[in-house]
Structure formats: C-alpha cells, structure tokens
Design a protein that fits this description.
Blueprint lengths: L1 H28 L5 H20 L9 H21 L1
C-alpha cells in the first residue's frame, strides 16, 4: 500500500513538472490565445501566481517556473519520507 501511494505521489509530481515545462516552452512559441496554450495556462498560472508575488522578475526573466518545480520536488520528497516511516 505504501509503495502504491508513493508511486502515485511521484507520478503526480512528474505530471506537474511536465505541464510546467510545456507551459514554459509554449510561452515562447505559441500565441497566448491559442486554445492549447490557454488550457495549459489555466492549469499552471494559479500555481505560479503566489510565487510571482514573492519573487520578482530578474531582469526580463521569470524564474517562478523553476521555483515551482523545485517546490514540487521538495514536497514530493517530504511526503514520501513521511509515508515511508
């Protein structure tokens, strides 16, 4: 049971990471009003907005996706550690 739960948590973390990476790539190559990009934005932007309020842009660069991926990985590791105890 613990194995299935930990694998599920890892899978969810990988999906979130993948969606964030797709969001970053699409922000460079796709029109913001394209339906695919709009759908991805609706998933990712609510996760990025709290980070963007705390961490400002560095020059022209938005590092909030990197921070989000790091946070997802840290939370995943913490949850798996708690479950496996």
């Amino acid at each position: 049971m613990v194995y299935i739960l930990s694998r599920t948590i890892e899978l969810v973390a990988q999906i979130i990471t993948f969606i964030v990476l797709v969001h970053v790539v699409l922000s460079y190559v796709m029109d913001p009003y394209h339906p695919v990009r709009a759908a991805i934005d609706r998933l990712v932007v609510p996760l990025l907005n709290p980070i963007r309020r705390v961490i400002p842009l560095i020059g022209m660069f938005d590092i909030s996706p990197i921070i989000l991926i790091i946070l997802v990985q840290l939370i995943t590791s913490f949850l798996i550690f708690i479950i496996s105890r």
